């Protein structure tokens, strides 16, 4: 009886010891197949042109394999440590310490965004999905593409990187291809500021200040953040003798230009656009405008069969000449029916005399006012041209 009891105890101890030893070999005891431990990252967000790492940890893999599949087109990208696509940007990295299979995508582009499947070759297949988000940060130099400053003043350029979840490691400034360093250029200062907190969209601004700007400071300025595209602006440094078009785009000498432009156009129109009825009188405009007389002008006067009144100073009496021309042309006294050619050419002759006599600034307001009046044919014949100017 005593020997039977000892045998039972020995059997129980043997079974208990075997059970313990078997448990160590099994790993988890009950389930001995592969599985995905939790938690694991399921959403990865990266910037364009950076490197994306998509991890997949698999425990108790045994003799099974791990594959990465792109859900968009069902392409098998990798199986174990082998890559099955010709895209050299894609590789897989295995970390034995953590049993992690990481899909690596270099120089990420927007087209790489989407869902990727980490698949275990069990029956049925076991899968874990990881979604990749690709953000394209915006890089721009604030203000117009062309910037203007006076020589001796300060120029301020700002480069902003927005829509970013990761701050760039650096933002470099280049002038015409050469990198700007503060210790090499005592007149420049570069500062960086940022907005937004970690985990949300942030923006960072690099400010370049150039003191006592010189003509040699003009040219292209480019800001280049790390792993992002660049942005460029053009700086123009104006000397004191050329003050036009500063930051506002409006120069001190810009206002008179429209006035002179109108005067030139009016003079050209009056010279070119004359009717056949006015041709005879127009040929004698040099007599009206000439201050010396004689020579060819005198011959023209004699051929025309008329006298050109002159003032006591020797200058042509424009008022009298134009009035007389209008009366002779109409042959109708001072009635209102004859103001067609002579009266019109009289007004044009005075206009030409004003333009050629250097009285543009005083004459132009009157000319514009005259052009807004009633039609010429409604004006009485022989009315002095000075009344309409």
TrEMBL record:
SMART domains per the UniProt record, alphabetical: IG, IGc2, IGv
One Gene Ontology biological process: synapse organization
Presence of keyword Acetylation: no
Keywords of this entry: Signal
Transmembrane segments annotated in the record for this chain: none
InterPro entries documented for this protein: Ig-like_dom, Ig-like_dom_sf, Ig-like_fold, Ig_I-set, Ig_sub, Ig_sub2, Ig_V-set, Zig-8
Presence of keyword Signal: yes
Pfam families: I-set, Ig_3
Biased composition (Basic and acidic residues): 289-309
UniProt-annotated stretches for the region Disordered: 289-337
Domain Ig-like stretches: 34-129, 137-239
GO CC entries: neuron projection membrane
Signal sequence coordinates: 1-26
Annotated protein name in UniProt: Ig-like domain-containing protein
């Amino acid at each position: 009886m005593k020997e039977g009891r000892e045998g039972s105890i020995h059997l129980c101890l043997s079974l208990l010891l075997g059970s313990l030893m078997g448990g160590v070999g099994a790993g988890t005891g009950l389930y001995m197949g592969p599985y995905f431990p939790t938690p694991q990252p399921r959403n990865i967000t990266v910037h364009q042109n950076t490197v994306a790492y998509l991890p997949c940890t698999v425990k108790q893999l045994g003799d099974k394999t791990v594959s990465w599949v792109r859900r968009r087109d069902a392409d098998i990208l990798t199986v174990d440590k082998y890559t099955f696509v010709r895209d050299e940007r894609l590789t897989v990295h295995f970390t034995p310490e953590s049993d992690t299979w990481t899909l690596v995508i270099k120089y990420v582009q927007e087209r790489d965004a989407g869902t990727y499947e980490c698949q275990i070759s069990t029956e049925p297949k076991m899968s874990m999905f990881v979604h990749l988000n690709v953000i394209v940060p915006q890089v721009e130099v604030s203000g117009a593409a062309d910037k203007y400053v006076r020589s001796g003043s300060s120029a301020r350029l700002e480069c902003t990187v927005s829509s970013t979840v990761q701050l760039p490691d650096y933002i470099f400034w280049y002038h015409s291809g050469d990198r700007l360093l503060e210790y090499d250029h005592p007149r420049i200062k570069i500062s960086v500021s940022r907005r937004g907190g970690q985990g949300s969209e942030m923006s960072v601004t690099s400010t370049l200040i150039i003191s006592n700007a010189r003509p040699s400071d003009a040219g292209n300025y480019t800001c280049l953040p790390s792993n992002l595209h660049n942005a460029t602006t053009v700086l123009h440094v104006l000397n004191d003798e050329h003050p036009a078009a500063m930051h506002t785009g409006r120069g001190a000498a810009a206002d008179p230009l429209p006035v002179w432009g109108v005067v030139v156009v009016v003079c050209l129109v009056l010279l070119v656009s004359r009717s056949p009825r006015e041709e005879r009188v127009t040929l004698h405009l040099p007599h009206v405008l000439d201050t010396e007389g004689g020579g060819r002008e005198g011959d023209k006067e004699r051929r025309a069969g008329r006298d050109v009144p002159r003032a006591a100073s020797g200058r042509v009496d424009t008022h009298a000449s134009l009035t007389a021309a209008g009366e002779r042309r109409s042959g109708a006294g001072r009635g209102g029916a004859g103001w067609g050619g002579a009266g019109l050419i009289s007004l044009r002759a005075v206009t030409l005399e004003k333009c050629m006599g250097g009285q543009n600034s005083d004459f132009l307001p009157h000319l514009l006012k005259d052009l807004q009046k009633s039609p010429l044919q409604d004006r009485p014949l022989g009315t002095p041209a000075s009344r309409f100017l």
